[in-house]
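Re: your question from the hallway

Yes, I did run it. Sequences:
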Amino acid sequence: KAGVTQTPRYLIKTRGQQVTLSCSPISGHRSVSWYQQTPGQGLQFLFEYFSETQRNKGNFPGRFSGRQFSNSRSEMNVSTLELGDSALYLCASSLSQGGKLFFGSGTQLSVL
Amino acid sequence: GDSVTQMEGPVTLSEEAFLTINCTYTATGYPSLFWYVQYPGEGLQLLLKATKADDKGSNKGFEATYRKETTSFHLEKGSVQVSDSAVYFCALSDQTGTASKLTFGTGTRLQVTL
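Structure:
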């Protein structure tokens, strides 16, 4: 069974641009969560989607948004990129909301 | 709000040494507690969990006991191997049990040498 797949693996953007990251959950998983990992702040919860609806949201500005499609794949978007958005963005899927999380390898975003 | 405090690393041990990584938490109610491990270049993997006081989570020789009285969930292993070298994260979910919304500690890097 394929694991959680995140694309792209690496991304370089400049300040002010926007970026879209993609996450394909494990087959059959309906919940997708996103986390930001930085050396300074550690791992921080961004949001969770279940059945195409955002169920939980962390403490991030509105520049961070996401969505989930009917096949459970999810995208997150960051607009007007700032240097501080440089981070590893991790996606995790679970069978149901609140279930055991399976993490992808992440997308490493560098903002120059 | 909820928070998790882990001992700072890196922790460097020789193979077969005893491992303890301290973790304490602050939370309202009765959170569930987790240990995750991150190997180089990979995402996080759930190592073990405990959902109520005095529960002991165990996996691959690692153990941690949910201590409500000391608000702790220390990770232990009796004999570490080189393959255990990784970053270990302690985490909690809030009392609603929404395990998707986790609060993580800062992580402790473990390096095991021959």
